[in-house]
Write a structure and sequence with these properties.
The protein is of the alpha+beta class. The chain has two domains: about 110 residues, Rossmann fold (3-Layer(aba) Sandwich); about 130 residues, Probable inorganic polyphosphate/atp-NAD kinase, domain 2 (Tumour Suppressor Smad4, Sandwich). About 15% of the residues lie in helices and about 40% in strands. It contains five helices and 17 strands. The strands form three sheets. The protein has a six-stranded antiparallel beta sheet, with no helix packed on it. Helix 2 links the parallel strand 2 and strand 3. The chain is elongated. The protein starts with 6 loop residues before the first strand and ends with a helix. The mean pLDDT is about 95.
C-alpha cells in the first residue's frame, strides 16, 4: 500500500458493509484500531457515531474516513473500493468538538457521556415534562412544559434538531442550538442560538410524576433529575471527507433543500 499512514477498518453488521469490508481487505493492508493513524468506517451515520464514541471511550481519537453503506449517509463519503490511498491523501479535514453530558438521576447516580450530534431530554410517559432551563448559572426558563428539549452541535444541527424545527448551524460557527421538542409553555418560545462556550443546566421539576430521560446521541440515562451540558474541547474529533463531499458544504446546502 502506498499510504504511509496505518489504516484500520471498521464495518457495521449489515450485509452490504460486510461485503465491502471483504473487498477492501483483499485490496489493502490493515492494522488493529489501537495501532491505526486513520480508521475507515463502513456503514451508515449511526455506525459512524458508534465508531467515534468507541474512540472517545478509549481516549484515542484518530481521524475517521467513512464510506456510506447505510441509508442516508450524511456524515459519510461515497462508497468505492478504488484508489483509497489517493482519496485519503486528498481528503479535507473537518474537526468537531463533542458535547459532554453530566447527569444525576433521582436516586443520586452520576452518569457522564459524550455526544457528537446532540444531548436531548425526553419525557418517559404521556405526561409532559416540566424542566427548568439555566444558561451560565442564570435561570432563563423557570418552567418549560414540553415533550423535551435538546442541545445540538453544528454537526448535529441537521439531524434531530432540524426535525424539531431547530436552526441549521454552519460547521465553524462556534455556536450550539437550544431547541424545544413540542413546547406547550412558553407557547411562543422556539429555542435559542448560543455560544459554544455556554454552560447549560436542566432541572426536572417533577421527576417522579413526570420522569425524563437524557440521551447523548444513542445512549440513554433514565429518570434524571439534573443535567449539565458543555462543549468538550479536550476530545476533538477529526472527520475526513472527499473535497466534493465535505461536511461543511453539505450543512450549508441543507439550508436550501426543499
Amino acid at each position: 500500500m502506498t499510504v504511509e499512514r496505518r489504516l484500520a477498518l471498521a464495518a457495521s453488521s449489515s450485509p452490504a458493509a460486510k461485503e465491502a469490508e471483504a473487498e477492501l481487505k483483499r485490496r489493502y493492508e490493515w492494522v488493529s484500531p489501537k495501532d491505526a493513524d486513520i480508521v475507515v468506517a463502513l456503514g451508515g451515520d449511526g455506525f459512524l457515531l458508534q465508531t467515534l464514541h468507541a474512540m472517545l471511550d478509549r481516549h484515542r481519537p484518530v481521524p475517521v474516513f467513512g464510506m456510506n453503506l447505510g441509508t442516508i449517509g450524511f456524515l459519510m463519503n461515497n462508497w468505492s473500493p478504488d484508489l483509497l490511498e489517493n482519496r485519503l491523501l486528498a481528503a479535507k479535514t473537518i474537526r468537531v468538538a463533542p458535547l459532554r453530558m453530566d447527569a444525576i438521576t433521582v436516586d443520586g447516580k452520576k452518569e457522564s457521556m459524550n455526544a457528537i450530534n446532540e444531548v436531548s431530554l425526553l419525557r418517559e410517559t404521556r405526561q409532559t415534562a416540566w424542566i427548568e432551563v439555566s444558561i451560565d448559572d442564570r435561570v432563563v426558563l423557570p418552567e418549560l412544559v414540553c415533550d423535551g428539549v435538546l442541545v445540538a452541535t453544528p454537526a448535529g444541527s441537521t439531524a434531530y434538531n432540524f426535525s424539531a424545527y431547530g436552526p441549521i448551524l454552519p460547521l465553524e460557527s462556534a455556536l450550539v442550538a437550544l431547541t424545544p421538542i413540542s413546547p406547550f409553555r412558553p407557547r411562543r418560545w422556539r429555542g435559542a442560538i448560543l455560544s459554544d462556550r455556554t454552560r447549560f443546566r436542566f432541572r426536572v421539576l417533577d421527576p417522579t410524576k413526570r420522569p425524563v430521560s437524557a440521551v447523548a446521541d444513542q445512549r440513554e440515562v433514565r429518570d434524571v433529575s439534573t443535567i449539565e451540558v458543555t462543549v468538550d474541547r479536550s476530545n476533538p474529533l477529526t472527520l475526513l471527507f472527499d473535497p466534493e463531499h465535505a461536511l461543511d458544504d453539505r450543512i450549508t446546502m441543507e439550508q436550501f433543500a426543499i
